[in-house]
Amino acid sequence: MARTADPARRAELLDQIVDYLAGHGLSTLSMRPLAEHLGKTTRVLTHHFADKEALLSATMERLDERHRAWLRAQPGRTGADSVGTIIRATWDWQLREENLPIARLVHEIEGLAAGGRLAGQVPRLLADRSEFVTGLLRERGVPEADAVRISTLANAAYAGLQADLLTTGERERVEQALDQLVGLVDGWVAEAVQDHPKD
Predict the structure, then answer these.
(1) In this predicted model, what pLDDT tens digit does every residue of 140-167 receive, in sequence order?
(2) Whether 28 contacts 38, CB under 8 Å
(3) Which is the most buried residue in 8, 91, 113, 140, by most CB within 10 A?
């Protein structure tokens, strides 16, 4: 009779796999090299994950969980700071040297998903970011329709600027554009609140 996989051990293993992918990338993922890196056998991996697709799905779910937990922990998110300030703080945190591998992995996942090469596995990272920013805007009095529109635009611009920096390394040019984005977002918030004052 097969043993049931231990949930705590599985979660620990998933964190190790996320860290492995952050260093090695997703597009060349193979079970044998992954198992060797973790000091395990492929049998240990298949004990927890039926196949590579199941492992990939579970790994993206774990990455999403870690991303959501980090977003919820952001200081100032309940109204103390402007949305632009939180966007800038998020940028600075994601692009710290120790966090760059995860930032690169997120962009790789999104690129593969956009290219239809994740076999139907669509990560929630983009939706989580959009919902997070929409929530920040809503908490500051921005009407729902405006909040969704501003969040969509801000997240698309943010992701594009981050991809630009990771690709070119031209931090000064890209961060000047980011500073303009931050100012635009705070301006849009002020305009939306002024146009729709609370009763």
Answers:
(1) 999 999 999 999 999 999 999 999 999 9
(2) no
(3) 91
pLDDT digits (tens, 9 = 90+) for 112-124: 888 887 766 666 7
- For the chain, the DSSP string reads -PPPPPHHHHHHHHHHHHHHHHHH-STT--HHHHHHHHT--HHHHHHH-SSHHHHHHHHHHHHHHHHHHHHHT-TTTTTTS-HHHHHHHHHHHHTSGGGHHHHHHHHHHHHHHHTT-STT---SHHHHHHHHHHHHHHHTT--HHHHHHHHHHHHHHHHHHHHHHHHH--HHHHHHHHHHHHHHHHHHHHHHHHHS---
